[in-house]
Amino acid sequence: MDAMAAVLELKNLQTQFATRDGIVRAVDGVSYAVGQGETLGVVGESGCGKSVSSLSILRLIPDPPGKIVGGSVLFAGEDLTRVSEERIRAVRGNEISMIFQEPMTSLNPMMTIGKQISEPLTRHLGLSKKQAADRAQEMLALVQIPDTRKWLSGYPHEMSGGMRQRVMIAIALACDPKVLIADEPTTALDVTIQAQILQLIRELQEKMGTAVIMVTHDLGVIAEVADRVVVMYAGRKIEEASVKKLFARPRHPYTRGLMTAIPRLDKITNGDGLSKRLTEIPGVVPPLYDLPAGCAFADRCGYATDQCRIEKPVFEKKSPNHWAACWQELPG
Amino acid sequence: MAADQKSPVAPLLEVIDLKTHFPIRTGVFSRVSGHVYAVDGVSINLREGETLGLVGESGSGKSTLGKSIMRLVEPTSGEIKISGVAITGLNKRDMFVHRRQVQMVFQDPYSSLNPRIPVGKVVAEALHIHGIASGVAADEMVRELFRRVGLRAAQTRNYANEFSGGQRQRVGIARALALNPKLIIADEPVSALDVSVQAQVINLFMDLQQELGLSYLFIAHDLAVVAQVCHRIAVMYLGKIIEVANRDELFKAPQHPYTQALLASIPIPNPEIKPAADRVLQGDIPSPSDPPKGCRFHTRCPLAETRCRTEEPPFKEGSPGHWVACHLH
Q1: Is B199 on the interface with A (CB under 8 A)?
Q2: Helix crossing, B165-178 with B119-129: angle to 10°?
Q3: Is A155 exposed, middle or buried (0-12, 13-18, 19+ CB in 10 A)?
Q4: Which of A77, A132, B32, B328 could form a disulfide with A118 if both were Cys (CB 3.0 to 4.6 A apart)?
Q5: Does A222 lie in the same domain as A157?
């Protein structure tokens, strides 16, 4: 999709879950790529498949009930959906690492902070205990934890939410990965702490040239950190563009709906849009086990025609660096 | 706070120097070893038909303040008046009568709806308990309430798990409205909802205010949401209100360094606006069990001076209706 050489590329990825209600196509043919030093934003609401697509990259989908049933994840000349269990473990936390919304659930409460950072270093990079401990302290300093000596022997429960997320970032970046997947990394944090963490990720990315996939529901976070954006709805990619193009002129009615549905602080301070009603997107996301034949957004869309209800829209180029899956040509 | 005391009519809600402290118990004898100063001397008032936003980060005490006004947690000291009547000293029975005037909407209505009873019955129960209506009359009132909040009358027969998050919040609002309250305390009512549904519920809050003349105390961490629905906004930090102003005034001319930092931290959904490099506030919010001396914000304040570390700043009205607790103003 991009002229830039991709570090990681998803091609037509399909991940399904077997549920009581039927087969849920959580990720239904999604493709995206991220280049070195680039931040790709993946945005959408609950159930759109943004998290499942990112978990599929490292094969972290519980099987059963989940299964990657098609497509590929290309990384360093390999298809990660097909490599051995041993190989994918070597990739995880080493060449590609991941941070999550709630750091407490991914940190080991019984293990010191220092151990948790140095463990992947001894395992993946074969460093000695002493080397790994030194590197762990360096990493803590890098993510701006004060009093690094003390915290090396501290435990996660002694830390605040923001500090824990810093530790997660330290663990994720300790092995100098090519790709960092950040799944709602600031959603559980207060807004002043969110600002710290986003700035930290940005600084470290510049320093280390890491490719970042930022998965979030928050368009504000996307606008702030992403270079390029993929918008997902009901398991599919419905729009992709450079961040500026996406916000300047969204081409999909859903993206447009999202942007007008959020209260805008920047509009309020400009004195327009005071206490006007928000523009609602009517209805709810259709259940993923029972998607309509045509466009999944058609029932909520003001532009929908008969064609939209019958035929799935083709994901096509609308302008340079801008693609969308919509039959309609929206007014500028 | 003495703002707007000129008006002869008592404000709908008046909170005077309210404190809610929780004891910390440790050891085998559960000895009280300290206190969490969740709400530590808060004064606010709220006029009829007004929406007052209460913003702050985790640990600021905003939720405890809301629950204290409902007396779901018992305040340690201070006074709460509703339409001029002090409710802090009321016994259970009088409080029961009073509670009709103030109702609460929570973040997750699912946890407050009995999953084994049709939601219509849950709402009808409130009407019955308070002796407003029962039987067929109550059922008809509930159907009317459901229509008012944008649900179908037939949905009164459904169970909580048959509703989406947005619909459940509508049920929660219907239940709060059932007793015809004057004031609704809404604690993070849209934070669990997706953006597209959030807009629907925010609009509903605003429509209901217009139709019924309701007042809201709207508690939320999301400043953009608060800006959308509120007339006035109070900012809390570590158990204290540090600034109150009209919405436009607060966003255009925030006075307290914390309010300024909070506003600057919000990511703006516009890639053309780049975040200011110096906006990032250092450090974490201190523990409310051991709040800093002097101004509670001084440990993170870029402008703190010597007296900020020792002397608590008074809450002053800098310009009409704009109150701030900061030595620098």
Answers
A1: yes
A2: 20
A3: middle
A4: A132
A5: no
How far apart, in Å, are the Cα atoms of A28 and each of A19, A233, A235, B96, B177? Answer: 16, 10, 5, 53, 42
| Cβ atoms B80, B17 nearer than 8 A | no
Nearest CA in chain A to B271: A223
Q: Domain range spanning residue A148?
A: 109-174
Provide, as residue numbers in chain A, all residues whose Cβ is less than 8 Å from the Cβ of B279.
Answer: 195
Is residue B258 situated within a structural domain?
A: yes
In whole angstroms, what is the distance from residue A5 CA to residue B128 CA? 68
Portion of chain B with pLDDT greater than 70, in percent: 96
Q: Does A257 touch chain B (CB under 8 A)?
A: yes
Instruction: Tell me the chain A residues in contact with residue B197 when contact means C-beta distances shorter than 8 Å.
Output: 284
Find the domain containing B298 and state its range: 13-101+181-324
Distance in angstroms (rounded) separating the CA atoms of residues A238 and A21: 25
Q: Which residue of B has its CA nearest to A219?
A: B269
Mutate to test the interface with B, among A104, A192, A322 (most CBs of B within 10 A): A192
A146 exposure class (CB count in 10 Å sphere: 0-12, 13-18, 19+): exposed
Structure tokens at B167: 């619909």
Out of B195, B221, B225, closest to residue A217 by CB: B195
Complex-level ipTM: 0.85
CATH of the domain at B189: 3.40.50.300
Query: pLDDT of B212-229, one tens digit each?
Result: 999 999 999 999 999 999
The whole-angstrom distance between B13's CA and the closest CA on chain A is 23
Which of A160, A190, A280 faces B199 most closely, judged by CB atoms? A280
**Do A311 and A299 share a structural domain?**
yes
Nearest CA in chain A to B229: A275
Number of domains in chain B: 1
- Asked if residues B118 and B156 have their Cβ atoms less than 8 Å apart, the reply is yes
* pLDDT tens, position by position, A264-321: 877 765 555 456 788 889 888 888 888 999 999 999 999 999 999 999 999 999 999 9
What one-character DSSP code corresponds to residue B32? E
Nearest beta carbon to residue B275 from set A224, A266, A268? A224
Residues B229 and B204 sit within 8 Å (Cβ to Cβ): no
A123 and A84, same domain (yes or no): no
The minimum CA-CA distance between A167 and chain B, rounded to whole Å, is: 15
Q: In angstroms, how far is CA A132 from the centroid of its own chain? A: 29
Domain's final residue, options A174, A195, A216: A174
Last residue of a domain, one of A156, A174, A192: A174
Q: Contact B109/B138 with Cβ under 8 angstroms?
A: no
Answer yes or no: are the C-beta atoms of A300 and A217 closer than 8 Å: no
Q: What part of A 134-153 touches B (C-beta under 8 Å)?
A: none
Domain count, chain A: 2
Set of chain A residues whose Cβ sits within 8 Å of the Cβ of B269? 219-220, 222-223, 247, 259, 262, 264, 266
Confidence of residue A4 (pLDDT cuts 50, 70, 90): low
Each residue of B224-271: pLDDT tens digit?
Answer: 999 999 999 999 999 999 999 999 999 999 999 999 999 999 898 999
